[in-house]
Amino acid sequence: MLSLVREWSVIGTHNKISLAVATSALMLASLVACSKTPRKAATRVEAAARARAQAIQEERAQAAVMDGDRQQLDVIPLPSKNQYMTIHTRASWQNPFLVVTTSTVSLTMLYPDMGPAHAPGDSLLRPQAARRERLELRLNELPQALTALPQNVWPYGRVIAVQDDPGAPKQDRPAVRRNEEAALQVLSNLGVVAYEWPSNGQ
Q1: pLDDT band per the 50, 70, 90 thresholds, residue 20
Q2: What is the residue range of 147's domain?
């Protein structure tokens, strides 16, 4: 009988130890889980802060580049509306001309005739088509392209004609308009006057 009591006592003690061990393990797991949750949250906050700081740094770098481009274009005098708003044909327009498509812009510039005016054979030796150049650009390439142009391709001053792609299909018109608005913003940031080409202009 005494041995039976001792056996039950041992079993009870064993169960108590097992219960204590299980409880401790559960509490430890809870503490670990709780410690991980704040750490994960802190890590997300730190990552967001780093991303924000990087974005601010990139914005400042882009603004610095834009300021530099604007300063280079400032050497070109401001335009006179009386001079350029009376021109309504592409053949007569001599300043840079921008055609905006769904995702790119087409920049056309006319280099001046460097020879004496009305010289013999002038129309054969220096035809306008030979002096005209066109570049297909992404919008982020436009500032660098404009600053690279020589000052003598801006006879009307710091103004550029802007036209949305007249050949764009109807379903592409919203995308063209969005890209045109973005191009107009770039020109505004550069201090370049945008002359929205008349819809009846040829």
Answers
A1: low
A2: 81-113+127-196
